[in-house]
Amino acid sequence: MKKMHIRTGSEGPTHDPYSYTEMEIETEHINIILHVGLVCWLRVEDKFPCEYVALLAEGDHAVDKWFEATGLTPAQFERAYWRVHGSTVHGQVVARTTRRVTGAFAPAPLMGVGA
What we know:
By secondary structure, the protein is an alpha+beta fold. The protein has helices at about 60-70, 75-85; strands at about 5-10, 20-25, 30-35, 40-45, 55-60, 85-90, 90-95.
């Protein structure tokens, strides 16, 4: 595994949008993308010049095929992603799990966080 990506957005009509999450694992040769939203699908993209794209599964089987291809459940992927990338609060990257630091060298709290 080289890179992990999570993208979120909305799809469907503007008067009744649905949220979606795309989880992507990027390797040297292929990208494996799971789209969970209004429709659930799994796609594999080849990075070679032919740019082969295969839609491996749709609907209920997409998550099962994702697990077969990656060895990770979507929940495990998200935990691993946030463990590596942290999250952002007010444009600053912070870890998802933090511990309390006290004393003279304790960092100042982020504005609006924990207040």
